[in-house]
Amino acid sequence: MNVTHATHVRREFYKAVWFYFHVVWPILSLLIFLIVLFGLIISYLETWHPLDGIYFAFVTGLTIGYGDFAPKLAISRVLAILLGFNGILMTAIFASISIRAIEIAVRTVDSEK
């Protein structure tokens, strides 16, 4: 594979990612909104600063889980579990977009030969 071929595949990959990102943007925006909303709810319930709640929600939703914040109330823990599922959905969406974009990029470049 020469440099121009790799550049062409990369360009097709980015075009496909951009296209599919626009397709799933409503779903992703809803998932991000839920992360922020759950973070604000948890911060209210746990009497944390709102930014700490949003930080906790993103760290939990991205399945990182540093452990510097831990909810004590049962309802907050349930919301944290839902944040984890939300993060798994987001990861699955990004992975499927990437895989589909790779397939399209390779197929497009190979069909041009």
From TrEMBL:
Gene3D superfamilies per UniProt: 1.10.287.70
Transmembrane segments: 17-42, 54-71, 78-102
Start and end residues of each Potassium channel domain: 31-102
Keyword Ion transport: yes
GO biological process terms held by the UniProt record: stabilization of membrane potential
GO cellular component: plasma membrane
UniProt-listed Pfam families: Ion_trans_2
Main location: membrane
Localization (cell): Membrane
Membrane topology classification: Multi-pass membrane protein
Alphabetically ordered keywords of this record: Ion channel, Ion transport, Membrane, Transmembrane, Transmembrane helix, Transport
GO molecular function: outward rectifier potassium channel activity; potassium ion leak channel activity
Protein name: Two pore domain potassium channel family protein
Record organism: Pseudomonas brassicacearum
Origin organism lineage: Bacteria, Pseudomonadati, Pseudomonadota, Gammaproteobacteria, Pseudomonadales
